[in-house]
Structures are given as structure tokens and as C-alpha cells.
Amino acid sequence: MAERPVLITGGAGFIGSNLVDALLARGYAVRVLDNLSTGKRSNLPDDSRLELIVGDVADAACVRQALQGCRAVVHLAAVASVQASVDDPLGTHQSNLIGTLNVCEAMRAEGVRRVLFASSAAVYGNNGEGEAIDEDTPKAPLTPYAADKLASEHYLDFYRRQHGLEPVVFRFFNIFGPRQDPSSPYSGVISIFTERAQKGLPIVVFGDGEQTRDFVYVGDLVEVLVQALESPEAVEGAVNVGLSRATSLNQLLEAIGEVLGGLPAVTYQASRPGDIRHSRANNTRLLQRYRLPEPPTGMREGLARLLGL
Ligand code: NAD
Ligand code: UD1
Predict the structure, then answer these.
(1) Boundaries of domain holding 233
(2) For residue 271, which atom of ligand 2 is closest to its CA?
């Protein structure tokens, strides 16, 4: 019998396609379910052990079909932009919460138990202000995006208690690296800044640039995801994925300038509504349960890899 695949929803996107590469390299068969809204076919390699289903996680029948015969799921499909959820709460909800429910229901029906879920540091809102945020920090979802991620966590926990699912919930901080699509104003800040810097186009900072993020190189995250798939147990309780390092946007620009040997003009505009001021993980639980590369990929090294330097 052919080996049962791992289903990666959102597998044609930034994080998903990096995970696809890592799983194929380890000999897994992989099935991707993606509506190609931000993901791209060209992010995926040509490999006989990889199958792409173009479809929507908001479509229950499609999810059920995609899950048939799978050994586990990595549920990454979502509108990843916080700002997009502010602009279109109902539209993003279809992907970000209904999609999760459809995955849970399909797993229950198909008897698939292990699911890794991409939750977000956004669930903490501004509650971690100035401190490293641990997983027990009170939640304060400020945007539809954060509300859907937190609700998804609760649904996954319900399916764990009621139906024996084995969810492993990760709260990713800010992930960056190759294939993060820079083409929309909703894209991740590092992909936008590096692309504009390379093309010599002006860069816009929303706010004073002193807001901070805990940036994680995608390759380091993927190492953790593979370990969680292979672990015999799905330990309860969400896990922050951050390096516990705060980088301000102004420091980020300095690093990009150093790596590229210069920067274009930078202008400052009003902050985005719902934008979080400071976000830095307490990653004690991550380090207890998983191995990060030692040392983890630093900002300048990650930027150089992203820029192919
Ligand atoms: P991405 O936009 O590159 O990937 C999302 C993928 O999901 C895309 O391929 C897109 O086409 C697909 N998709 C979106 N809606 C879909 C739908 N309704 N049905 C099927 N496919 C759909 O973004 P990413 O950065 O790779 O994010 C992956 C996951 O990680 C998302 O759930 C995101 O919320 C989460 N996350 C990302 C970060 C980060 O810093 N990048 C941080 C925290 C959480
Ligand atoms: C990011 C992720 C989100 C994730 C969260 C976890 C993306 C698109 N968003 O949200 O999925 O859940 O981390 O912490 O991957 N900015 C500018 N100029 C720009 C673009 C952005 O100044 O051109 C600013 C933003 O206002 C914000 C910061 O950069 O202050 C980071 O923005 P962004 O990359 O969109 O990430 P988050 O909102 O932190």
C-alpha cells in the first residue's frame, strides 16, 4: 500500500511550501489543499509524492475529500494578514474559523487524529506589553484575525476532549524567509521592506517604527513542526514559537540596510488600527518540548538567505 500522506492545508503558501520541502526531503508523501488565494503553484516542487488539490477549506465536502487516507494534518490555510481581517471580517472568517471547524469535522469523520495548528501571537493583543509573553498571559484578541485564531484553539480543544483529536497548537510570532509573498500591502513586513529596498522604492513605516516583533526564520519553525508531527504524543497546551528577541522596525531597517549596503527613502505614517505595539515570546515551553537549531537563525543571516546572498 502507498504511504499515507500528510495533508497540509495552505501548503502552497509561504510557511506551507517550506514545510512541504522539508517533509518531502524526509521521505513523506504530502497532499496540499490550497485555494491559491495567496499561495502559488510555483511554490511547490514537481515531485511524484506531492499532490495538490485546489480547493477551499471553507468547503466542508472538499476538506472531507482531501483528508481521506491521510495520516495527519497541518492546518495552515488562513488569511494570514491581520489588516485584511480588519478590512473584511466576514470574508476572512470563512477561511480562518469555518475552515478550522471543517478540518475538525472531517478529521472526526475520517478517524484522523493528529493536527498541527497555526495559531498566532495576535491572541495576546497588547497584554504582553514590554514583557516576554508566556502562554498563560491573558488573551486579548484585538482583531477579527486574532478572534478567529483564539476561537479555533477552543474548537480544537473541544474536539480533543470530545472526539479524541490530537491537536498541537502553535502560536507563531513573526515568521520570515523565502517565499513570503511581498506583493500585497497585507504581506509580512520583512517581505515588503526587503523587496522595496532591493528595487530602490520608498518604504512606509506605520507608526514611529519603535514597535517590536519577535522574528523567527521559517527554516527554524519548520524544524519544530516536523518534530511535532513525529512526536508520539500530542502534549496539551499551546506553544509559543518565538526566539524571545525583540526587534523594532527601525532596527530591522538598519539590518536590511547593512545586508544590502543601503536603503531607499523611509517615511512614517499613522499606525494601523489594532496594530500590536510590542510582541516578544517567552519560549520556555517551546525549548522544553522541541529542539530549535542551536543557535537559532539570526536576523542578518535570515535576511541574507531570504535575499539569496
Ligand atoms: P500565506 O498567505 O503564504 O499562506 C496561507 C495559505 O493558505 C496560502 O497558500 C493561501 O492560498 C491558503 N489559503 C488561504 N485561505 C484559504 C482557504 N480558504 N482555503 C484554502 N487555502 C487557503 O501565509 P503564511 O505566512 O504562510 O501563513 C500560514 C499560516 O500561519 C496562517 O494560518 C497564518 O495565519 C499563520 N501565521 C503566520 C504567521 C507569519 O508570521 N507568517 C504568524 C502567525 C501565524
Ligand atoms: C504577523 C503575521 C500574522 C501573525 C502575527 C503574529 C503576516 C502578514 N502577518 O502580523 O499572520 O499572526 O504576525 O505575531 O504574516 N508594517 C509597516 N509597513 C509595512 C507593513 C507593515 O510599518 O509596509 C508594520 C505593521 O504596521 C506592524 C509591523 O510592521 O506594526 C508588522 O506587520 P506585519 O508583518 O503585517 O505583521 P503582524 O501584524 O505583526
Answers:
(1) 6-175+215-241
(2) 26
